[in-house]
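Hi support team,

I'm opening this ticket because the web form for multi-chain structure prediction keeps timing out on my end. I have pasted the exact lines I submitted so you can reproduce it. The total is 591 residues across two entries, so I didn't expect it to be a heavy job. Is there a limit I'm missing, or should I split the entries? Thanks in advance, R.K.
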Amino acid sequence: MEKKATRESYGEALVMLAEKRNDLVVLDADLAAATKTGIFKKAYPDRFFDCGIAEANMMGVAAGVASTGKLVFASTFAMFAAGRAYEIIRNSIGYPHLNVKIGATHAGISVGEDGATHQCNEDIALMRTIPGMTVINPADDVEAKAAVLAMADYVGPTYMRFGRLAAPIFNDKDTYKFELGKGVQLRDGDDITIVATGLMVAQALEAADALKGQSINARVINIHTIKPIDKDIIIKAAKETGKIVTVEEHSIIGGLGSAVCDVLCENYPVPVTKIGVMDTFGHSGPAAALLEEFGLCADNIANTVKKVLGK
Amino acid sequence: MDATLKKQLEITATKVRMGVIEGVYNAKSGHPGGSLSVADVLTYLYFAKMNVDPKNPQMPERDRLVLSKGHTAPALYSVLANRGFFPVDDLKTLRHIGSKLQGHPVMNKVPGVDMSTGSLGQGISAACGMALSGKLSNEFYKVYAVLGDGEIEEGQVWEAAMFAAHYQLDNLVAVVDNNGLQIDGRISDVMSPYPIDEKFKAFGWHVISIDAHDFDAIEKAFNEAEKISGKPTVIIQRSIKGKGVSFMEDQVSWHGTAPNEEQYNQAMTELKAHLAELEK
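Hello R.K., no limit was hit. The queue was backed up. Here is the completed structure from your submission:
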């Protein structure tokens, strides 16, 4: 299967967007080569502004640009967007509900060799606590591009999470349609539901396909919009399959797993097993090896499902 | 400055100060000291300088002001009310449940407020964004950012200072309200930001130092800023915290304390007497 990092999709989508939005402004904090806003910078140098290594100011500048009515994307690594600039995002962007799109790349453990200081496993948790903040975590190239283009038409603060590692492209670019706030059921099944997001969706699909051979029918749901989350698809899955496993390249505290539990505990409580980074920091290593070590892979998902089902 | 205009501004600034006291007294909380020290410069900007229309507060070509020292909202609210953006009587609802006049300014609730602020060090960045946006689409509006001297202890201010100079934002004018006091004491004792002028110079800004309570100097400074091209300007105004109310002047204790009834009466008596003197 063809692969591409969603950060690459992000950079390319910005160029596609600029063709139809002449009010588009892109900001970066000295990471354009890595976040791939460099692709935009090359195509539209007059609408790209490097803010230097100063993420707090960049988020404030983005707020100011947005207040004048222009469409602005602000990019850096997830760690420095959601982490370092959290309070600026909350107070200067979230509170006045300004139309700033935060393009955060290098999310999760798959940052790899740079190690724990750069592996942000907390961004979804941080961003989803901000009132009115939309949180998007696309799963592949097709979804990432469609999400960028769709969110440009949505007015309001949005956090978009992209990865460093090349991810399998499983969506069909000709038929895919991004619907804000809608989960996507990718596999049908009645035994259990795997709810996944971002890079983990492809792993969940691989796990479900492997389980099928062992006569376990796992439903797979892709949650690209973590906030506002698709309550209906989650409650329906709980009613129909009775058991849920969540998978995310993020801390098990406050991310997708927590968001799913928030929905279920108030609506239709069923057992939920969370796969994610288990309240620990990451460390240096090749991304693929780290994902395996931290259980963020098809094998561990399949084994966890079997354990939950007592098989 | 034209003598009639100066007199008018002095009268308005006194009414603005009365609005500050009115608001903070009725709120039983708030920040009178710093509100009184910026009352003159805000009065000048909204009554003699800025292109704004109280009937059309979202006018795209308007000049913008970001009160980066957002805790002095009572002064901004009082100026906006006196300028006709909303009724002066609303000032009494400051900090009340249901009031648009939140403890710190909210752009989506208060007509005339261009940016939500309150967390120190952030407003200047937003002002940079507005100025950058104006340059990008060849608009002629000006952006003013008002900062506290304690506020500039925040690192983000200097990130923004670098940004404004780097992108040659000559449509941006920052004001540093140098009243010398912050919550824990004199700024020179708590965490000295001095020399403020040399710091901004080193960051590539045009620097003007003035007396904050002299309208001639204020007008001269903003006119000078307008002539500077290729770099942002900062006006460092030496001010008196609590200016206009004798017992509040240069007293750190009036940073964030509301007057009781007796103190309220005394403050209003002083301001009314000053107003009567000016209107004679």
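A quick check on our side: The longest strand of chain B covers residues 172-178. Let us know if the file doesn't open in your viewer.
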